[in-house]
Amino acid sequence: MPLRRFSVMYAFLVAVCIFALIALATEPSAFIVAIADAPTQCGDGRPVVAKALGNGRIRLNAEPEVSMDEAVSRIHEVMKYRAERVVYVAGGPGVAWKDVIALVDRVWNEAEITSIVTPKIEELARRRSCLVPSRGPYDKLPRHTTLAH
Questions:
Q1: How confident is the model over 31-58, as pLDDT tens digits?
Q2: Which H/E stretch holds residue 52?
Q3: pTM for the full predicted model
Q4: Which residues contact 122 (CB under 8 A, 6 or more apart)?
Q5: How far apart are the first and last CA of the chain?
Q6: Nearest to residue 81, comparing CAs of 43, 110, 115?
Q7: Burial class of 115 by CB neighbour count within 10 A (0 to 12, 13 to 18, 19+)
Q8: Where are the alpha helices (DSSP H) in 26-140?
């Protein structure tokens, strides 16, 4: 009888450990994105703005729209020659937030900073001809401000 109890308890312990390992392995990772800003003075570099258009289509700056894979490849080519690797991400009118997040997720590895361009900042940037990532204190952001992917 004690051997049977031990076997049941051992099996239960193994099952709990397996479920704990599965939960740890599937925990979503997260990344912090900056919100872009449009100051009155700007640097010399031309910003790379990737705009999600929906259905996996992306427009980089004023270039023709391309697929997500083509956009990521193009960003990779542009970023490898830059000292400051910043990609700005925006959503076109009526584009679902999940499409913007999918774009952020794909360009994340190509840039040091990924910055979201809101419609208000996009308008200011157009008028001021300047776009920069915000320089906020990211280490003080509450955990819920990160975007899980």
A1: 566 777 777 777 667 889 999 999 999 9
A2: strand 48-54
A3: 0.67
A4: 90
A5: 49
A6: 110
A7: buried
A8: 68-79, 97-107, 119-128
Closest residue by Cα to residue 113 from 135, 90, 145: 135
pLDDT digits (tens, 9 = 90+) for 108-145: 888 887 888 888 888 888 888 888 887 655 444 444 33
DSSP state of 26: T
How many Å apart are CA 24 and CA 90, to the nearest integer? Answer: 32
Q: Which residue has the higher pLDDT, 8 or 147?
A: 8
Segment holding 13, helix H or strand E: helix 2-25
Give the chain's domains with CATH numbers. 29-148 (3.30.420.270)
